[in-house]
């Protein structure tokens, strides 16, 4: 079967002008400009099969959103190629634009002063959706999201969570085969996040839509995606499963010991970093390579009622990975130029 | 006393710095504002040529020859540079509606005084920058100024311009204060803007108006915002009439100063009583 | 054909949604309606005043009182149509670039320029449209000489050309904000340029006037926009001389050329679109 999404060496460089306010400075700026070149995306190769639910992870400014914008044809790449459903996105062909959707948690497209139903009606006409299937899809989606009573209320009166659900419905009315989600849960409370997770999981399972999601929240990723792609400094640094990510980048494990005599013996620091000490329990952070050796030595020396070895928390692994990646990218991604 | 002076200086300085940031836009914007006058000048040239052709003598419209007419339009631009107060009334209205006006009830600074200094700073910066396009335009059009004022008329002209500034300020401030009583003053403001464009003589010399309109328009204070200074410059009002006009203008300034103060005190009292 | 039908229904929905929105803020709507008409009436008062002193505008130009009012009415019709359908959208376009909401327009399977040009309909401008139509009707009825149906059709076609010219100028300016950032001065600039078409083109005489007339006829054809339809209606060009034919033809040519230039600038600008994040 053909790939749903395929990119090869996709790159986007921006020139960031130190733009000035006002007409005259900006006119002057047309001829003499100071700019920096920012390498937002620096050669990304990705293949996504139809029906996959993939998460894009990465620190701020890693190039996740830029990649989604490239794939949806909003911006044109500097070099490289991409094909989504067999189309080149930045040619902006109507045939392609009918078959995908993009939802951005930070921007809204619904008419602020009108009920969402009116914006949906507009989408029906723009996407040329037959009346019967429009009605059916809208009812179905509104039912799943539990927003039927809100359809006829002006969007400005809705809460952020309710608005986000409406944005999702608007994006899905034309039953896209590929869906890009850029931070869909940003700023939402836990309940609202949960509603959206449940909806997305159900929707993806029943429709088999190919979904690409970027998010800050590991919860989103944990709940939804089997495959994770990590981007940092505009480059792909990991592509695989979520447990695999921890395996690869979580360079340590947590050993937890329940001592039999109710006391925690002193000078355990030489085994590793102590995470917590709540007698009779103690948690130690130990390098992955020496876990077995450390365990053996601990059990030989002390009497223990219970011992367990855990993976480090996901959030921690990812944030450590991001901060190291961010440091590296700061050194290389930005070159200062002057013209 | 010293502290008042330093407060005044600080308000002035900060407001001036804020405005200077946009000087380039300013200069271009001022120059562009002369563009509609260009069409107006051509319109009058056509009208005068027609009158001349049909009457066979030096054409005048309401006592204005072609040169006077063009000079008049340029001079009203100068008057408006003194008397127009963009955003003053709507700014006051917005402060009252949003409640930020409270800062003037709490801080030991009088609102009218603060706004006056703020506006003065804006105007000073504006003149410093706009002098370039103004001089350019007036130099290019110097041929239209047949007679320039002599001696005391110059003094009278400058005084009338300064009073136009004061009148514009207190008049608009008074209108802005009305939002203590009415929630929606934007429509009122628009009516004021329209009336002032028409009745201040910005659109045409108000001498052109037939009776009884001429009497009505000359009785209300708006003519002092644009028409009167230009008329003094061009010698349309002279001698006793000029002195009388200046006195009348001064009276309006004092009247609106008192009215603005009164509105502020009554309004502030009403505001703290009914809250917001 | 199917594409046109769809574009039409999308446009109707835009118009409908704008109306719903205007009706939710009815007081605001009324204020805009009344105030913009008040402005027009003030201007008409000024014109009346001018004709109090002169029988016509310029020797031998043929712009007498009623001819001129037909001209002013035509200008009003063209301007109010432009402001009704395009002005708010031109202004909004800069805002869409600043906030990055242009992204959504680029996702839609419909021409992007069409979408952003017609999103909002400013119904309050309809007041001035009516004033303009009434003015033209009254003025033409005061003039001797019957107006044939052919003339009316040509007039309407030329009015349409005028709207296209003003639209193209507006959106060429608006599109530059992709490169220059949001700039209110750009729209002011548009206003000032359009203000040159307020009066008949014959007034631009002499050393300074001729270049102005030439520039605003051939480079930025705002003079063509109003003058051609107004002359078609009230200063009959029959029998047409060769120069009259050229003059009349200038409207559709100028409209087509400005629209083509505008499309080109718009497409170029979209290619440089960078999409502001959040």
Beta strand count of chain C: 0
Considering DSSP H and I runs of 4 or more, what fraction of the residues of chain B is helical?
A: over 70%
Q: Please, how many domains of chain B?
A: 1
**Number of helical stretches of at least 4 residues of chain C:** 12
Q: H/E element string of chain C?
A: HHHHHHHHHHHH
What's the tally of helices of chain B? 12
Shape of chain C: globular
Distance between the termini of chain C: 38 Å
Structural class of chain B: mainly alpha
What's a concise summary of this model?
The complex is a heterotrimer of chains A (339), B (276) and C (278). Chain B has twelve helices and no strands.
What's the SSE blueprint?
The complex is a heterotrimer of chains A (339), B (276) and C (278).
Chain A: E1 5-17, H1 23-31, E2 34-48, E3 53-57, H2 64-71, E4 79-84, H3 94-97, E5 100-104, H4 116-126, H5 131-145, H6 160-172, E6 178-182, H7 190-207, E7 210-214, H8 218-224, E8 227-232, E9 235-241, H9 242-249, E10 252-259, E11 273-278, E12 281-287, H10 291-301, E13 304-310, H11 314-332, E14 334-338
Parallel strand pairs in A: 3-7, 3-8, 5-6, 6-7
Antiparallel strand pairs in A: 1-2, 1-4, 2-14, 8-9, 10-12, 10-13, 11-12
Helix pairs in contact in A: 5-6
Chain B: H1 2-20, H2 23-33, H3 35-55, H4 66-83, H5 88-98, H6 102-106, H7 111-140, H8 152-177, H9 186-199, H10 213-219, H11 227-233, H12 239-274
Chain C: H1 2-24, H2 26-53, H3 65-99, H4 102-107, H5 112-118, H6 126-142, H7 149-175, H8 177-180, H9 184-194, H10 206-219, H11 222-234, H12 242-271
């Amino acid at each position: 079967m053909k790939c749903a999404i395929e990119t090869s060496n996709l790159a986007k460089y921006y020139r960031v002008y130190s733009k000035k306010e006002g007409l005259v400075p900006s006119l002057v700026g047309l001829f003499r400009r100071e700019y920096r070149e920012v390498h937002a995306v620096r050669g990304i190769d990705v293949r996504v099969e139809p029906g996959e639910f993939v998460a894009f992870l990465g620190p701020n400014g890693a190039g996740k959103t830029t990649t989604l914008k490239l794939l949806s044809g909003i911006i044109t790449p500097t070099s490289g190629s991409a094909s989504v459903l067999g189309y080149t996105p930045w040619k902006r062909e109507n045939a392609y634009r009918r078959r995908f959707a993009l939802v951005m948690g930070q921007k809204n497209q619904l008419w602020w002063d009108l009920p969402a139903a009116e914006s949906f009606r507009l989408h029906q006409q723009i996407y040329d959706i037959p009346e019967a299937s429009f009605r059916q899809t809208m009812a179905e989606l509104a039912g799943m999201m539990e927003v039927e009573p809100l359809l006829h209320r002006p969007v400005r009166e809705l809460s952020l969570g309710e608005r986000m659900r409406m944005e999702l419905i608007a994006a899905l009315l034309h039953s896209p085969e590929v869906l890009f989600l850029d931070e869909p849960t940003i700023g939402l409370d836990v309940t609202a996040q949960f509603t959206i997770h449940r909806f997305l999981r159900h929707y993806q399972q029943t429709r088999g839509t190919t979904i690409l999601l970027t998010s800050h929240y590991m919860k989103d990723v944990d709940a939804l995606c089997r495959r994770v792609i990590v981007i940092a400094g505009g480059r792909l640094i990991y592509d695989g499963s979520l447990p695999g990510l921890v395996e690869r980048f979580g360079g340590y494990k947590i050993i937890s010991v329940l001592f039999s005599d109710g006391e925690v013996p002193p000078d355990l620091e030489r085994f590793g970093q102590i995470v917590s000490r709540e007698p009779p329990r103690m948690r130690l952070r130990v390098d992955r390579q020496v876990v077995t050796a450390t365990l053996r030595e601990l059990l030989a020396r002390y009497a223990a009622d219970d011992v367990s070895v855990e993976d480090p928390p996901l959030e921690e692994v990812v944030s450590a990975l991001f901060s190291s990646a961010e440091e590296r990218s700061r050194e290389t991604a930005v070159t200062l130029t002057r013209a | 006393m010293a502290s008042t002076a330093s407060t005044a200086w600080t308000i002035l300085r900060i407001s001036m710095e804020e405005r200077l940031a946009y000087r380039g836009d300013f200069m271009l914007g001022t120059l562009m504002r002369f563009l509609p006058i260009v069409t107006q000048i051509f319109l009058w040239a056509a009208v005068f040529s027609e009158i001349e052709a049909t009457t066979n003598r030096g054409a005048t419209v309401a006592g204005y020859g072609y040169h006077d007419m063009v000079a008049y339009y340029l001079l009203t631009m100068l008057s408006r540079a003194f008397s127009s107060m963009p955003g003053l009334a709507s700014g006051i209205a917005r402060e009252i509606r949003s409640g930020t006006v409270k800062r003037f009830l709490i801080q030991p600074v009088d609102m009218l005084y603060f706004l006056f200094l703020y506006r003065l700073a804006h105007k000073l910066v504006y003149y410093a920058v706009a002098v370039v396009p103004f001089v350019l335009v007036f130099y290019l059009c110097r041929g239209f100024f047949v007679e320039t004022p002599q001696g005391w008329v110059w003094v009278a002209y400058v005084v009338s311009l300064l009073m136009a500034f004061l009148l514009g300020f207190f008049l608009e401030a008074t209108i802005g204060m009305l939002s203590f009583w009415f929630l929606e003053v934007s429509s009122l403001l628009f009516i004021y803007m329209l009336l002032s464009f028409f009745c201040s003589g910005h659109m045409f010399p108000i001498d052109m108006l037939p009776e009884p309109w001429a009497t009505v328009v000359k009785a209300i204070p708006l003519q002092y915002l644009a028409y009167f200074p230009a008329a003094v410059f061009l010698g349309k009002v002279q001698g006793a009439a000029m002195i009388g006009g200046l006195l009348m203008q001064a009276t309006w300034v004092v009247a609106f100063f008192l009215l603005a103060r009164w509105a502020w005190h009554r309004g502030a009292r009403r505001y703290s009583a009914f809250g917001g | 054909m199917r594409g046109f039908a769809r574009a039409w229904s999308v446009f109707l929905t835009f118009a409908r949604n704008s109306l719903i929105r205007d009706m939710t803020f009815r007081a605001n709507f009324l204020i805009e309606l009344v105030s913009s008409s008040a402005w027009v009436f003030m201007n008409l008062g000024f014109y009346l005043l001018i004709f109090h002193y002169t029988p016509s505008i310029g020797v031998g130009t043929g712009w007498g009182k009623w001819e001129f009012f037909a001209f002013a009415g035509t200008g009003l019709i063209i301007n109010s149509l432009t402001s009704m359908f395009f002005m708010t959208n031109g202004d909004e376009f800069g805002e869409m670039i600043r906030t990055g909401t242009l992204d959504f327009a680029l996702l839609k399977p419909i021409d992007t320029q069409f979408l952003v040009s017609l999103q909002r309909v400013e119904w309050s401008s309809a007041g001035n449209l009516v004033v303009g139509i009434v003015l033209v009707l009254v003025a033409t009825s005061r003039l001797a000489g019957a107006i044939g149906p052919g003339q009316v059709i040509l007039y309407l076609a030329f009015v349409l050309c005028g709207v296209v010219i003003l639209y193209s100028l507006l959106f060429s300016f608006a599109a530059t904000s992709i490169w220059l950032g949001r700039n209110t001065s750009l729209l002011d600039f548009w206003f000032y340029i359009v203000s040159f078409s307020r009066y008949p083109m014959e007034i631009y005489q002499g050393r300074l006037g001729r270049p102005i007339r030439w520039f605003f006829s051939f480079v930025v054809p705002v003079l063509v926009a109003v003058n051609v339809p107004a002359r078609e209606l009230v200063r009959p060009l029959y029998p047409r001389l060769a120069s009259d034919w050229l003059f009349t033809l200038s409207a559709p040519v100028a409209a087509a050329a400005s629209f083509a230039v505008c499309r080109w600038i718009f497409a170029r600008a979209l290619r440089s679109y960078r999409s502001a994040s959040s």
